[in-house]
Amino acid sequence: MAAYRLTLLPGDGTGPEVIEEAKKVISAFEEFGPISFETTEIPCGGQHYLETGEEWPLGSFEHCRDNSDAIVVGAVGWPGASLPNGDVAGGQVLLGLRSALDLYANVRPVKLYQGVNHKVHGSFSDVWDHSLVDMVLIRENTEGLYHSLLRRSAMSAQGGEKDSPIVIEKFPGLEGEVEWDARPISRMGSERVIRFAFELAKRRSTRQKSPQKVTCVDKSNVTRGCRLFRKVFREVSAENPEIETNEAYIDAFSMWLVRNPEDLDVVVLPNMFGDIATDLASVLQGGMGMAASANIGDNHMLFEPVHGSSPKYAGKNMVNPIAAISSIQLMFETLGARHDDDDAILCAEVLEGAISSHLSSNGQVTYDLGGKASTSDVGEAIATRCVEALSSMSS
Ligand code: GGG
Questions:
Q1: Distance of CA 94 from the midpoint of ligand 1 (Å)
Q2: The pTM is what?
Q3: Beta 105-111 vs 292-296: how paired, if at all?
């Protein structure tokens, strides 16, 4: 297999720190495993904007679009770094890529590894069954409440025309200063992400040898966009009668998610609900330091830890790099599936095994998991486990 073209966008704050550890893991696979990359690293984000007046160098978007098999982002966003229109500086990078590359499915696995305390049931961790938390939340990634910002970010990434503004003169019943955001949800946008959820449930059913349920989460009792989302969900469900489904409103779902995570396999949600629910769900897996994600479109893929730039911890070598390292595991898995590349799938399995054995055998962990290790200690330890596993396979 020729080298995959990988673009790294470390970004702001702790983003570059966790990407440094992801790079150690990637290097382990390049040196001792069956995969190679041609890697390009691009400076970007709010801090870069404050230093240079640009969110990333000219031509970066085109590089991501035309010369990247996979993109990996650290984090974007920095206090005080905003564009003249008030938008977050760095939005062109992450939100612009999600929108302009049509990365419509934001895939966020929530799995509690052995050795990691459940943040809700932590004190009972000896009796808590870790297999109770193993689900994937799929956040619609191109429309909903984010639509206007995504479009603005995509337009400026591509250096193109601006959309004409939506004009509403007045909201009856509201006086004085009013700001508002449209929340458009389309049939096409809903259908493609819902189909993605059903396909993922089928693959997981085969892999885990256990049928996987798909749950639709919305607020269709109140909002029209969600009514369309739910309607499309039922249509796709009717085409897949072998897959069990469930439906929930986001408010009740938030309670069920924490109370009965064992009832959830694959969950599909509109954009903003998906953003909020996945932060909540991260407490089931040990916190945001464990939450990895993939942004998937038909032609492009981007991977990132779910967490942001954590300015409070930046420069301290303190934060948990496992979310970023697990995002590399998702990258191997997705490259393998898309390119029919068994070597990449093998790399995904080895990395998953290394993370899992590190955590279950009391390996060093950062403060958020109750340990004292640094970001680089954890990255090095997991990279070493990968080298050991790869070396034992070739000997
Ligand atoms: N690595 C994730 C990150 O940098 N997030 C910052 C951000 O602005 N995210 C927008 C969103 O996912 O809603």
A1: 7
A2: 0.96
A3: antiparallel
